[in-house]
Design a protein that fits this description.
Residues 1-110 form the VOC domain. The protein is α/β, with parallel strands linked by helices. It has helices at residues 8-19, 67-76, 135-151, 185-194; strands spanning 2-5, 22-25, 34-38, 41-48, 57-59, 61-63, 80-88, 92-98, 104-110, 125-132, 159-163, 175-182, 198-206, 209-215, 221-226. The radius of gyration is 17 Å and the shape is globular.
Length: 227
């Protein structure tokens, strides 16, 4: 996953203080993006926005050994390709897509970077929740893309779907919300506010833990997850 931010240096200060991340400046061929590490292992990236009209957001990427057939299925299922396949240095190939309701997600064909070095522990990825208006339609669309990963016998509990109105105002557009594991959700929210963020949704209980939704000091939303 990565965050597209107006000010990457400010993002380093915010997320470094909140999650204890350290940052590795990539080679010049990768632009001005930086890789975030936790105890030396990659957990996320911060990327500068190239167009001020673009939203300030966190994006989750699904691993795709070959994105070409998935791209075809995105279109066949009523979705859109937001940004076609593009190489990211020697790390891999990325595609940005949107589902039929407009929620944006990425596809990632790994080369030099397979994905998370750490997850399901404090300061690292813990869950991706799709907030949608039609969960049955979402299951059909994403099931056509990632059936075995989501619904198969070896499915991993990393991705859920829920109606937007369960947590957000009904007019909120469908979207993905990335969750970072923390030891105590309330303390993490207080720390985010002290760093210039704001609480979008106070802590609430879910089947996968206690969740609070935060907007960082540049406008990107994410969640903290206490298990």
């Amino acid at each position: 996953m990565d965050a597209q931010l107006p000010d990457v240096a400010a993002g380093r200060r915010f997320y470094g203080a909140l999650f204890g991340w350290e940052f590795e400046q990539r080679e010049p061929s990768y632009g001005r993006s930086v890789l975030a590490r936790l105890d030396g292992e990659p957990v996320a990236a911060l990327t500068p926005k190239t167009d001020g009209r673009m939203p300030t957001v966190w994006t989750v990427y699904f691993a795709a050994p070959d994105p070409a057939p998935l791209t075809g299925r995105v279109l066949a299922g009523g979705g859109q390709i937001v940004a076609p396949a593009a190489g990211v240095g020697g790390l891999g190939t990325a595609v940005l897509a949107a589902d039929p309701e407009g929620a944006v997600f990425g596809l990632w064909q790994p080369a030099g970077r397979a994905g998370f070095g750490r997850r399901h522990e404090p300061g690292a990825f813990g869950w991706a929740q799709l907030y949608t208006r039609d969960t049955e339609a979402a299951n059909a669309f994403y099931g056509s893309l990632f059936h075995d990963a989501l619904f198969g016998p070896d499915a991993r509990p990393d991705f859920g779907r829920a109606p937007v109105a369960d947590v957000f105002p009904a007019e909120m557009p469908p979207h993905f919300l990335v969750h970072f594991v923390v030891e105590r959700a309330g303390e993490a929210l207080d720390a985010a506010v002290a760093l210039g963020g704001r609480v979008q949704v106070p802590p609430f209980e879910t089947s996968y833990g206690t969740v609070g939704v935060v907007v960082d000091d540049q406008g990107a939303s994410f969640a903290v997850l206490e298990r």
